[in-house]
Amino acid sequence: MDDLAQVLHTLERIAAALERRTPKPEPVRIPDGVDAFVWQADPDALIPVERVNRLPIGLLKGIESQKAKLLDNTLRFARGLPANNALLWGARGTGKSSLVKAVHAETNAETGAAIAMIEVQREDMPSLARLMRHLKTGNRRILLFCDDLSFENQDESYKSLKSILDGGLEGRPDSVLFYATSNRRHLMSRQMIENERATAIHQGEAVEEKVSLSDRFGMWIGFHNMDQDTYLDIIRGYCDAARLSIPFEEVQPNALEWSMTRGGRSGRVAWQFFLDLCGRLGLPPQFE
Fold first, then answer.
1. pLDDT, position 49
2. Which of 89, 101, 149, 187 could form a cystine bridge with 180, CB 3.0-4.6 A?
3. What is the pLDDT of residues 10-61, one digit of tens each?
4. How many domains in the chain?
5. 166 found inside a domain
6. pTM of the model
7. What is the pLDDT of residues 156-177, one digit of tens each?
8. Last residue of a domain, one of 197, 223, 249
9. Is residue 31 domain-resident?
10. Are residues 190 and 265 in the same domain?
11. In terms of domains, do 214 and 232 share one?
């Protein structure tokens, strides 16, 4: 017993020495003058983003109803009114993440509220509880944003997000809103849900556990594939905003050919064509 007591005493001394040598982590603060950050989970830090990669909201075409819903929700949040967490789901390249970033800028421009947007990577979902504790100490309103959120088999990190969105003793601060984009309406693959149904003792309960995550978002906004006219209208808007001198009648055949080579039409395909067009014309893709 004496030997055991000596070992425990030595371990306590080592632990105390390590604690003295390792300073406690400083609380994360959101500085004034910067409106966009990326959350870094190890060690905890907010990395400022001086120039956000986004388009003006007026250049986002073919998603007028989605634009109106998300902007209205965000404006209410900026003004201190009740607002819902939002899930933007649907086809690839249809402007989901572009809309979130554009709405953030438009809201700040309209209200002067200077909402801070913090991007959280999907793999950092387990650290959300720590981030929330940091954010509770600040005065600014915060828009958390996760792009391309989805979960695969054996991935349990979705449980961290569920407790943050709606539930848990601490809950979500009123000054924090969460927006996510995903190609999946329920954030999980059909195979993942089917596997749960096949292996569970109580199949209904297992599936409910998986799909209930998307139910925690009070607002669902769907995005769908666009038609040819909308695709061309997006490119025309880019060309007009950049004041390209080339007539659109000359641009249109190349734009249609570009979409056929890419196997579809989307906002992303339209933007990629516009970049190629600017490159061929020797002009930077700048909007006035």
1. 92
2. 149
3. 777 776 666 555 555 566 777 778 899 999 988 888 999 988 999 999 999 9
4. 2
5. yes
6. 0.81
7. 666 677 777 765 666 677 889 9
8. 223
9. no
10. no
11. no
Tell whether 188 and 240 lie within a shared domain: no
Beta-carbon neighbour count of residue 32 at 10 Å?
10
| Residue 129, in any domain of the structure | yes
152-69-102-93 Cα dihedral, nearest 10 degrees: 40
- Structural domain that includes position 85: 36-223
Read off the tokens for 183: 């190609």
39 alpha carbon, distance to own chain's centre = 12
How many CB atoms neighbour CB 98 within 10 A? 21
Mean pLDDT of 237-266: 94
8 domain residue, yes or no: no
Highest mean pLDDT among 129-138, 172-181, 184-193, 221-230: 221-230
Angle between the N-to-C axes of helices 228-241 and 248-262, in degrees from 0 to 180, rounded to the nearest 10: 130
**155 Cβ contact partners less than 8 Å away, ≥ 6 residues apart:** none
What mean pLDDT comes out for the span 256-268?
93
Cα–Cα distance, 133 to 142 (Å, whole number) = 13
DSSP codes, 4-61: HHHHHHHHHHHHHHHHHHSPPPPPP---TT--EEEEEETTEEEEE-SS-----GGG--
CB 259 within 8 A of CB 273: yes
Lowest mean pLDDT among 94-108, 161-175, 188-202: 188-202
Of the three residues 204, 223, 242, the one that is the final residue of a domain is 223
Alpha-carbon distance of 236 to 266, in angstroms, equals 14
Q: Are residues 137 and 52 in the same domain?
A: yes
